[in-house]
Amino acid sequence: MKKKLSTLDLTLASMFVALMAIGANITSWVPFMTIGTVPITLQTFFALLAGMILGSRLGAISMTVYALVGLAGVPVFAKAGGGVATIFSSTFGFIISFIFTAYVVGKIAEKSKSLPVLIAASLAGLVVNYVFGTNWMYFALKFWAAAPPEFSYKIAWLWMVLPAIKDTILAVLAAFMGYRLQRTVSSRSQVNNLKRAI
Question: What pTM does this model have?
Fold first, then answer.
């Protein structure tokens, strides 16, 4: 039987929903965070961190809430996007992938909080993110977004090379941040337990 979500759980999940919205539109406030025409969004970074900090279940729930909030019309997606029509966007697959990304990262991180495991979890989550998102993008452009005839599966993946380099770096940074946050939380918990014992 799964335990009920506590007030703290709901607060943390809500916090990551807000962070995802900020990460999606970071270039609106920091315009220089763009390489060529590729904006350096932080959605993947926060989805990975959600899995590490919240765990598989709550991490996936927070990403599901983020997707539903956006589909409800709140402008939390990239470029202040939102609404049901987003489903037909070529990048919507990445939004859905964040749910699975957080879940996979959380599952691996629940086994061990060591830095090597968190790095492995983060990179595994990144693979899930790109495989799901890029395949969605390919089929969307090919079948309902009227891509040019020369567009191919190989080209779809070539488009993702530059963002993948950026996200790989951010994935490793997310692992380091997750590791530091876990240690901080653990240390505080030990201090609180010691105070109660005294």
Answer: 0.86
Q: Which of 97, 120, 123 is nearest to 20 (CA)?
A: 97
What's the angle, vertex CA 186, arms to CA 188 and CA 99, rounded to 5?
120
User: CA 22, CA 19: separation in Å to the nearest integer?
Assistant: 5
CATH number for the 12-175 domain, one of 3.90.1600.10, 1.25.40.10, 1.10.1760.20, 2.40.320.10?
A: 1.10.1760.20
> In terms of Cα–Cα distance, which of 76, 25, 13 is closest to 49?
13
- Chain-centre distance for alpha carbon 95: 8
Give the tens place of pLDDT for each residue, 59-113.
999 999 999 999 999 999 988 889 999 998 888 999 999 999 999 999 999 999 8
**β-strand 34-35 against 38-39: which pairing, if any?**
antiparallel
How far is Cα 33 from Cα 190, in angstroms, rounded to an integer?
39
CB 12 within 8 A of CB 67: no
